Amino acid sequence: MAPYGSDDTTSDDSMADTDMAAGRRKAARYVVPVAVVGVAAATIGLVPALADSGDPDLPKISAQQLINKIAASDVQQMSGTVRFSTNLGLPNLGGLESGLLSGANKGGDGSSADPKSKLTELLSGSHTLRVAADGPDRQKVSLIESAAEYSLIHDGKDVWGYDSKSNEVYHGTADQNGERQREKTPATPKDFADEALKSVDDTTSVTVDGTVQVAGRDAYKLLIKPKQSSTTVGAISIAVDARTGMPLKFTLTPASGGAAVVDAGFTQVSFAKPAASTFDFTPPKGAKVTQGDEAAKAPRESAPKSGKDLAKGRDGFDVLGKGWNSIATFDSGSKGGLPSGAGGGDMGGFLGSLGDHVTGKFGKGTVFSTRLVNALITDDGKVYVGTVTKNALVKAADAAR
Questions:
Q1: For the chain, does the N or the C end have fewer beta carbons within 10 angstroms?
Q2: Tens digit of pLDDT for each residue in 170-208?
């Protein structure tokens, strides 16, 4: 496909209405699985609507046309800065929660530059990302920290990860890691928007909610709202660039109100071709280099993105309900409920102190809550998890009896 030529290019293409089924299939082709929103982005129904007049003044467009515009977007060359914030409402454990998240993806002999360990940091707090792309074979994402920088670079057959703080380098090949790494890198609002639009049905309304400017560019606002009442998801707002169709900002707010759970938006963006040197990388002198095949040998357990991921490989995995009220359930195999720590440590008691104890026809259990995802672990080892309320989990457990 040809790259988007210039920021000054105009388009005379008209966005004709298409039937709902065709639009849904087209949108589904552009899925990029991403952490966090894997659970939240359930299924989306379409309600065509016209954009209200606003500032900037843009031609009216229906929700279906705007979704088609996102699906047809073919931005091959771009660079910019993304401000990324995640507020799941995890308990404050004095930094322990960050260690647990990163440790889940890092084996004892793994590299701190391995993307699977480093990018879990995006699951909490606020971050600044610099992103660049030049076609399908060249991408770069840099996580900017106060006194350090982490970069993930895909250049042809090579995939490099570099952590300046530890001076460690991860090296893999595109055939081995390229597409898979990009799928797991929530770098831009488009990553989240594609995930949110991957499945469409009648459990959600989708409307155009006026216009807005993001990073100095005119954009339409696509508003996605669940019709179901038991979900923890309040709404998803996507600012879509009026010219290119590329999502510029993604915001997911919880049904409980307050700050966004996920807020990712460009603060600066350009569609000019990045300099070739942007994607050059040579391991610094003295850096420890870990090859991808070596990292694969290190013991590692990927952090789950959703209830379905938690249930992979489990016997009796099932999904209850549909749409935003979907609940994944499986048997953890841990009879007696929460696990105990090794060496006699009371890990179960520690974990239990972080949750809410509940009872029902199913018996007793503990609910662990965030502002988006809730999970119920019963005393007989059953697990129920989804972007639903605590009461919905208890009802599901009761009904399963």
A1: N
A2: 999 876 444 444 444 456 899 899 888 876 678 989 999
Contacts of 285 (CB under 8 A, 6+ apart): none
CB 355 within 8 A of CB 366: yes
- CA dist., res. 290 & res. 266, Å (int): 32
- Beta bridge partners, 376, equal 367, 384
Residue 395 near residue 384, CB atoms below 8 Å: no
- Nearest Cα residue to 120 out of 193, 165, 184, 191: 184
Nearest 5°: the CA angle 187, 189, 190 is: 95
Whole-angstrom distance between the N-terminal and C-terminal Cα of the chain? 53
**What order do you get walking across the sheet with 363-369 strand by strand?**
318-320, 327-331, 382-386, 374-378, 363-369, 356-360
Question: For residue 290, what is the DSSP state?
Answer: E
The Cα 204–Cα 45 span in angstroms is: 5
User: Per residue in 113-170, pLDDT tens?
Assistant: 888 777 777 778 899 999 999 999 999 999 998 889 999 999 999 999 999 999 999 9
Cis peptide before 56 (omega within 30 of 0): yes
| d(C-alpha 267, C-alpha 288), whole Å | 34
In 2-144, beta strands by DSSP E: 77-86, 125-134, 138-144
Per DSSP, what are the bridge partners of residue 375?
A: 368, 385
